[in-house]
Every structure is written in C-alpha cells, then in structure tokens.
Write a structure and sequence with these properties.
The protein is mainly beta and about 80 residues long. The chain contains 1 helix and 6 strands, in the order E-E-E-E-E-E-H. It has a 6-stranded antiparallel β-barrel with strand order 1-2-3-4-5-6.
C-alpha cells in the first residue's frame, strides 16, 4: 500500500529577480527551521517544486501552488536511501 503524506506549511522566501525565488525558512507545527540547501528545483504548470535540506538534517520537497499561494511539504527519501531498507 502506498500513500502520500503532505502538509500545508508556512514558508519564508527570498525574493530576488522574481517573487518567491527560493525558500529560506519553513515553519512546521509551529517550529521554524532554516533551509540550509536547495538541492533541486523544478517547475510544472501552476507549481514550483524545491527539494530542500533543513538545518535539522531533514529533507523535504516543498511545492508552491502558485494560483492559491499555498506551500505544501512532502517527505523526501532518495532512491539510494530507500534501496537500503
């Protein structure tokens, strides 16, 4: 059985040449954690995705739903890491 866990979160972003260029901090369950690295970024119609590593060592995929101005947090597990289970 496969299911996805996603959670709406608050994200503070850096805005440079465009708005919400990259995430800087994520607030999860009332706790704010720094984004130490944006490992990857990709785009789809209506959404932007960021694979990030947080200061606490956790990795997530952040999805920004542009039309709704909503951020969604999804757990991330690399294929290499998942293969070791």
């Amino acid at each position: 059985m496969s299911f996805r866990i996603e959670k709406h979160v608050q994200v503070e972003t850096y805005s440079g040449y465009k708005a919400d260029e990259r995430p800087m901090r994520v607030t999860i369950d009332g706790q704010t954690v720094e984004v130490v690295e944006v490992e990857d970024r990709w785009y789809s119609p209506g959404a932007t995705f960021f694979r990030v590593r947080l200061a606490n060592g956790e990795q997530y995929v952040l999805r920004q739903i542009e039309a709704q101005e909503v951020w969604v947090l999804e757990p991330y597990r690399s294929v290499q890491h998942a293969a070791s289970y």
